Amino acid sequence: ETGVTQTPRHLVMGMTNKKSLKCEQHLGHNAMYWYKQSAKKPLELMFVYNFKEQTENNSVPSRFSPECPNSSHLFLHLHTLQPEDSALYLCASSPDRGQTNEKLFFGSGTQLSVL
Amino acid sequence: RKEVEQDPGPFNVPEGATVAFNCTYSNSASQSFFWYRQDCRKEPKLLMSVYSSGNEDGRFTAQLNRASQYISLLIRDSKLSDSATYLCVVNTGGSYIPTFGRGTSLIVHP
C-alpha cells in the first residue's frame, strides 16, 4: 500500500457538476497539501493543512473547497469549475509544517478534465 | 522574477554522459533546498536534499551556492532510467512553503 493514496485517478466533469477528490495518507504525518500541476507550469500550491487546521490558502478561487477532517484525510470539493481548471491535482503530506527541511510525499494525483 | 527558475530543456544526452542542471532562486532568505524527480504521468518523488557543503548520493551530486543563489544537480554515467523531469524545490519564507520550479526534462538515449 502506498503512503499517500488519491482517488479517483481520472475525473471528467461538466462545468455544472459537483465532485470531490479524496486523499489519504498512511505515514503518520501531520501536514497535508493540495497542489495543482498544469502543462508547462510549475506545481502551484493551493492549500496547506497542519494538524487539521488550514494554514495556507494561496488565493484559490472559491469553486475549490478543501476539507480536512483529520490528519490522515484531505478532500478537495469541486463545483462550477472552468475548463482552465483542467490539470493534475496532487495531494502531498509531510511530517510537520514549519520545519526548514520539510520533505513532501505525493499521491499519484487525479487527472481532472473539465468540459 | 520567478521565485524558482529552471531551464525546461529538454537535455538530450547519450548513455554514460555526465549532465548538470542549475536552478536559481530569488529569495535570499530561503532555508532548504531539494531535488525531486517526476516521471511522465507520475507524481514527484524526492531525489535528494541539498546541503550547504554539497552532497553526493551514488551517481548524483547536489551543490548549493548561496552567494549566487543557485543549486545544481550533476548526474554522472547517465542511465536510460534517468530520463525524467527534475524539479528544483526551495523552502522559503517564515512558514517554509515548498516552492517548485517548472522542472528540467532529461532524455537519455542509447
Residue stretches of chain B low in confidence (pLDDT < 50, at least 5 long) are none
Query: N-to-C terminal Cα separation of chain B, in Å?
Result: 37 Å
Query: What oligomeric assembly is this protein in?
Result: heterodimer
Rg over C-alpha atoms of chain B, rounded to the nearest angstrom: 13 Å
What form of chain A results from the Cα inertia axes? globular
Question: Shape of chain B, please?
Answer: globular
Which structural class do you get from the secondary structure elements of chain B?
Answer: mainly beta
Q: Quickly give the structural class of chain A.
A: mainly beta
Helix content of chain B: under 10%
What is the mean predicted local confidence, pLDDT of chain B?
Answer: 92
Series of secondary-structure elements of chain B, N-terminal to C-terminal: EEEEEEEEEEE
The tally of beta strands of chain B, per DSSP, is 11
Which pair of chains forms the biggest interface, and how many residues does each contribute?
A-B, 23 and 24 residues
Mean pLDDT of chain A: 91
Summarize the main sheet of chain B.
6 strands, mixed
> In percent, how helical is the residue content of chain A?
under 10%
Counted by DSSP, the helix tally of chain B is 0
H/E order of the elements of chain A? EEEEEEEEEEE
Gist of the model:
The complex is a heterodimer of chains A (about 120) and B (about 110). Chain A has strands at about 5, 10-15, 20-25, 30-35, 45-50, 55, 65-70, 75-80, 85-95, 105, 110-115. By secondary structure, chain A is an all-beta fold.
